[in-house]
Structures are given as C-alpha cells and as structure tokens.
Amino acid sequence: MATKDELVYAGEKGRFTLYTGLCKGCGLCIEKCPTGVLDWNDVLGVYGTPSVLPVAKGKVCTGCGICQQLCPDCAIKVERTRAG
Amino acid sequence: MEFAQMPKCWRKQTKPHKFCPGCGHGLVLKALGMAIDELDIQKRVVFGCDIGCSLLAWDFFDVDTVQTHHGRTTPVITGIKRARPELIGIAYMGDGGGYAIGSQHLVNAAARNERITAILVNNTNYGMTGGQMAPTTLPNQKTETSPYGRDVEEMGYPTQGPEMVAAITREGAYVARGTVARFKQLQGYLKKALENQINGSGFSFVEVLSGCPTNWRTNAKETWEFIEKDMAKYFQVGELKGSGGKEG
Predict the structure, then answer these.
(1) Which among A21, A30, A74 is the nearest to B30, CB-wise?
(2) For B6, which residue in chain A has the nearest alpha carbon?
(3) How far is B207 from chain A (nearest CA, A)?
(4) Which domains does chain A have, with CATH numbers?
(5) pLDDT tens-place string over residues A11-42
(6) Contact indicator for B155, B146 with CB cutoff of 8 Å
C-alpha cells in the first residue's frame, strides 16, 4: 500500500499535494498543465523517478485541477483556495 | 488511510496500481470508478477483466471481480447477468482480446443485445507481450512485428470496433468511442453506458483511445500527440448509437 508521504505546495489560488508513494513520474500532467507551472523536482516517486511540483520559475498555479484529473495514478490532489 | 482524490470504489490497499507509468488504463479505470460512484452502484457491480494488460485490473476495484482469457470476459459477464439480472456486469478488455482472439464473443453478445456493459481499451498494440501489431494498429505505425510500419496492402486496415457494433446492435443499444485525452467526456460516456444497462435497454459498448508509452517508446509529449492527433484522426471520437435519439 502506498505510503502517505506528501509534498505540499501552497499557492495563492490553490493547495497542491503530491503523494510520492503514488507518483510514477510519467509526466502526463506536465504536458497538460495550461500554465506550464508544473516541473520535475528532486524528491523521488515510487519508481525512483523525479516527482512533480508547481514550481516552474515565472509561472503561477491557478488551481484549475487538470493535473489531478489527468493523473492515471491519482497522485495529485488540488484544493482550490476560496476567494475572499 | 484515505486518498480523497481517488474514486471511492477504488481498492486503496492495491495502490499504486500495477500499470506502467503513463498507461491509459489508470485513466479509464478512474473515469469508470467515478461513474460507478456517481450512480452509487458499487455493491451491485461485477467487474470482469480479460487477459492482457487489462487483467492487471483484477484487484483494482473494491467490487466482485472475475478474470477470464481471450475475450471470454464478455460471455462470462453475460452468464452472470442472466443468472442474476439485478447485478451490473462490466466486461473490461483490451483491443487484442476484444477485436482479435475474442471478437466472436463481442460480435455475438452485441448481436444478441445482451444487457451488459463492455468497455474496450484501444492502445493500438498488444501491450503485455511486448508491443506486437494488433487489429487496431494504425496504417504505417511501427510495432515489434511491423518494423517497417503497417502496410495496409499486406496487412489490411485497422478494426473500427464501435462502428461495427453500432451496425449489428438493435435499438436501445449504446455505442460510443471516448478518449483518455477528454476525461470528462469519457466519464459521461461510461456513465451513460452503465445507465443503459441499469435501464435494461440493451448492449452498451464504449471503446476508449488510450496510451501505451512503454511500447510506443514515447515520452509524455509524444504520447498525448499520438492519442490526440494520429489515433483520433483514424478513430473518430463520439457517440455512435443511443445518445438520446440523435445518432452520429
């Protein structure tokens, strides 16, 4: 069973959580991110591949949740921050 | 332990699942899981998986599951549905099992208008055995057994499954082709296919265009390009039958 190790990135628009015990490093989310904010990072996923975080320089995560929808392993959770 | 982003009917203890990184099966089963959750039918579902990569889904859901060989998942689920009509039978298979070695089962179940839901994942090759040419391999696509590309003069044209099933089924059947690149649409198709069975209207069939980065030897960018451009060009995505009166 997957460990619950998680990487959290709390942005202005949303809170991005990546479960490293589920991420296989396929990169499908990086290609589909509309703002191009997702990038590889040094923490390794379950198969020893780099995992992802929305930390690309000069880009902002809008909390749209497309990465969560298109992750075949459900390794990403995006919670949108409520405005106001 | 709870993963809030996973469908409720997924079996959490078996995750991460056994499919390769980037495999489309995970997405299809996620869409199916969400459709099952939406209809709240987890306790009534019997899930049948076939041989090939699709068998790796044998412990995927927290529902009763049976695994069979070579397209036989369709008749096995048909038998279960006939014996226990209150259950909801899902036959899950790949293109090798459904269109090649087990196509007779699919054709006959469709012609008899069995009240089951068949889901066929099309990744244009035989994934588990190493990427050999399948009935759905695109013209000029290179695989292990067509190293110079599929020559349609020599090897014929790829199978258009939903078109065939739509032609032989009766009124009341539901036939659609979705793609993992349009997740919400796919989820809607799968939900309609399950509702069609719950209503007892007839055979429901959904083919899903899916990716196989391991055997295609593609990176993430090329995988999406192949699914969205090359595959969608030959295999038209949409509902072919039973979409509330309007066809095509």
Answers:
(1) A74
(2) A74
(3) 18
(4) 6-80 (3.30.70.20)
(5) 888 899 999 999 999 999 999 999 999 999 99
(6) yes
